[in-house]
């Protein structure tokens, strides 16, 4: 592969040149949602980040297998089912379908595999049996725990010592555990919970074990890239590594990519603050292209501050860009330079922020115009933006069409009657409403006004 891709590996905390296990192929696993409520903008960011990474890897010639799971067995799903007095399967299925639709509406491709925990119980039980067999886990009163003291690399991803984990994280006291940091691979059934038969009695899987099983099923015990939000590094990803590497030689995943989290109006997005923005609410208010461009104008590893104002800012920039593209003089020469530069930015740790910066600069420098706009298709495809120029134009027209037509007609009449005062007043009125009137030889048209 001639393109040299480098990426920041959370496992080594440095940027590395990407070397796939099998030449020309990439296996990527991303932790998906726990389907117990509507997905929010944090899910949207992670989904868009990895969507673009997969699209870019394919763009530069890799054959990618993209796997993203659904956690459909979980405490939160069970408590919601109890709250609404329905089967937990019903809750999981409802929010799973909602998530699939949200992803489609955000312009994300479907992963090649989207496995659910409930379809993988046999595999989970078998993996737990192997971990016990190797001496890394133990059964205690119907639960099974991973014994972290047996796994000497515990903490290698989050770069923490056992002591600092104990100090920095809230650990639940549990008399069944040998070490406070041991985590459940299997949980004994409680009343009203969904449960499955196992060698340790009725119960259900712990959270982390599912990802070790499902990634291995589709990508093998050693695969290229594992992704997810920063908040999953500890304990989830640390525990995935412990489980998988306790029974297999070598690395579980070779490269770990973590996207930064989002704040809302400079506050952490959380249920307790009550500032969670659901994807579907955001999509009602904002075009999906704007949401994508907003997230992609930040590097995937940096935190993002999301607010109405920030989205309006992006909307304004896009309007300016569209206007520039429309007015730039035809020139077919420079698009090659653009197509080289944005790819170079992406080859350097998927720097979408730089790629969009290059795009905006090329437009402002007059290099992209209506004549060569079709040649940015590759960029649009990788970024997953589609119809953004038309959509914004149509939006403006539908919003302003009637009002602006009326103003233009009245003004035409005023000009015919040489009533310049009224004509100027009508021009000002249009401007206040956000429209610039453009007088041509035989007609008057309008453009959206830059705020
Ligand atoms: Zn996971």
How would you describe this protein?
The chain is α/β, with parallel strands linked by helices and about 450 residues long. The chain is built from 15 helices and 15 strands. It folds into three domains: about 250 residues, HUPs (Rossmann fold, 3-Layer(aba) Sandwich), CATH 3.40.50; about 80 residues; about 55 residues, no CATH class. Helix 6 packs across helix 7. The structure holds zinc ion (ZN). The site of zinc ion has 4 residues, from helix 7.
How many helical elements? 15
Total number of beta strands: 15
Q: What gyration radius follows from the Cα positions, in whole Å?
A: 27 Å
Name of the CATH first level of the largest domain: Alpha Beta
**What share of the residues does DSSP label as strand, in percent?**
15-25%
| Broad structural category | alpha/beta
Distance between the termini: 46 Å
Oligomer: single chain
Can you tell me the CATH superfamily of the largest domain?
A: HUPs
Q: Are any ligands bound, and if so which? A: zinc ion
**What is the molecular shape?**
elongated
Name the poorly predicted regions: none
């Amino acid at each position: 592969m001639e393109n040299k891709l480098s990426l920041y590996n959370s496992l080594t905390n440095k940027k590395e040149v990407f070397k796939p296990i099998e030449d020309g192929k990439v296996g990527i696993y991303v932790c998906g949602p726990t389907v117990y409520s509507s997905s929010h903008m944090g899910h949207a960011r992670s989904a868009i980040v990895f969507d673009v990474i997969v699209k870019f890897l394919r763009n530069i010639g890799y054959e990618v297998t993209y796997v993203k799971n659904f956690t459909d067995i979980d405490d939160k799903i069970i408590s919601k089912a109890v709250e609404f007095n329905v089967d937990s399967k019903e809750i999981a299925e409802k929010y799973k379908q909602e998530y699939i639709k949200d992803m489609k509406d955000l312009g994300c491709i479907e992963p090649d595999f989207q496995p659910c925990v409930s379809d993988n119980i046999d595999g989970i039980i078998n993996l737990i049996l192997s971990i016990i067999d190797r001496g890394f886990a133990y059964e205690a009163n119907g639960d099974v725990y991973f014994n972290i003291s047996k796994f000497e690399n515990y903490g290698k991803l989050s770069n923490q010592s056992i002591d600092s984990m104990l100090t920095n994280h809230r650990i639940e006291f549990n008399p069944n555990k040998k070490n406070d940091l041991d985590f459940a691979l299997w949980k004994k059934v409680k009343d009203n919970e969904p449960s499955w038969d196992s060698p340790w009695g009725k119960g259900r899987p712990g959270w982390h074990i599912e990802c070790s099983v499902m990634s291995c099923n589709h990508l093998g015990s050693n695969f290229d890239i594992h992704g997810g939000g920063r908040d999953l590094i500890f304990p989830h990803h640390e525990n995935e590594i412990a489980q998988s590497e306790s029974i297999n030689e070598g690395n579980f995943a070779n490269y770990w990519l973590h996207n930064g989290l989002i704040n809302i109006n400079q506050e952490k997005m959380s249920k307790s603050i009550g500032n969670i923005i659901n994807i579907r609410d955001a999509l009602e208010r904002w075009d999906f292209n704007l949401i994508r461009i907003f997230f992609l104008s930040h590097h995937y590893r940096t935190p993002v501050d999301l607010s109405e104002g920030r989205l309006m800012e992006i909307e304004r920039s896009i309007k300016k860009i569209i206007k520039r593209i429309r007015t730039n003089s035809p020139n077919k020469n420079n698009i090659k330079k653009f197509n080289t530069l944005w790819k170079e930015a992406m080859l350097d740790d998927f720097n979408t922020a730089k790629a969009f910066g290059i795009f905006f600069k090329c437009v402002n420098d007059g290099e992209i115009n209506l004549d060569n706009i079709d040649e940015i298709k590759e960029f649009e495809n990788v970024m997953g933006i589609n119809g953004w120029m038309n959509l914004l134009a149509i939006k403006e027209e539908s919003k302003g069409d009637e009002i602006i037509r009326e103003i233009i007609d009245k003004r035409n009449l005023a000009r015919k009657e040489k009533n310049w005062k009224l004509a100027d007043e009508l021009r000002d009125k249009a401007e206040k409403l956000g429209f610039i009137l453009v007088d041509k030889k035989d007609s008057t048209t309008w453009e959206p006004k830059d705020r």
